[in-house]
Amino acid sequence: MPDMARLEARSRRLQRKPSRQRKASWRRERTKRHLSRVRRKIANRRKNWHRHVSRRLAAEAGTVAVEGLNVKGMTRSAKGTAEAPGTMVAQKSGTNRVILDTGWTALKRMLEYKAANVIVVPARNTSRTCHECGAKDERNRDPRTRANFRCVACGHAAHADINAAKNILARALDGAAGRDEASETGASARPEAFALATSADP
Ligand SMILES: [Zn+2]
């Protein structure tokens, strides 16, 4: 994902600005125009990135597996309550922002349009299950970096997104083998992995 943090910060700043400006003033109108320009820029950048990623994936693989993230549910859960915000809230809302940012439903649609076979699998435990031995443990993820995966049972180490992607692909192919013949080719894509590969891990 292209780095959009600066554009988004600008967009948020501009969103707040009109409240400090006189109603129906020339300056306020100018701020509104500026804001819509920044928003358009963000949308275009995202769309270009989707085009780029979907073109590459469709060219490299006949089948792409993605996990079905519950985007709405995740966004809700991060809000928490004012009384008990918890330490995970900031981190979680960061992750949510990345997921929402990538607009991966739009990406999936574009992939399907480009003739890739897209298989959506349940996201449950894909990131904490060891692809080598199948051990499922929260401690498999390094809590500090989140990018490192090390299995507490067998010692298998990998980039967390790669390990998860292999689980997603295996899950997709398991399901596909039962349904049809589409199981001999495959690549795995993880929406989070796209986002985290180019931006800092939230
Ligand atoms: Zn293992």
Description:
A 3-stranded parallel β-sheet has the order 2-1-5, with helices on both faces. Strands 3-4 form a two-stranded antiparallel ribbon. Helix content is 54%, strand content 10%. It is elongated, with a radius of gyration of 20 Å. The chain has a domain at 61-198. Strand 3 and strand 4 form a beta hairpin. It has 202 residues and is mostly helical. It is built from 7 helices and 5 strands. Helix 1 (5-16) packs antiparallel against helix 2 (26-60), helix 2 (26-60) packs across helix 5 (104-113) and helix 4 (88-102) crosses helix 7 (191-198). The structure holds zinc ion. Zinc ion is lined by residues 130, 132-133, 135, 151, 153-154, 156.
- Rg over CA atoms, rounded to whole Å, is 20 Å
**How do the strands line up in the largest sheet?**
2-1-5
Strand content: 5-15%
Number of helices: 7
Inertia-based shape: elongated
Q: How far apart lie the N and C ends?
A: 13 Å
Order of helices and strands: HHEHHHEEEHEH
DSSP, total strands: 5
Low-pLDDT residue spans: 72-93, 179-202
Ligands and ions found: zinc ion
| Structural category | mainly alpha
Major sheet summary line: 3 strands, parallel
Concise overview:
Helices cover 54% and strands 10% of the residues.
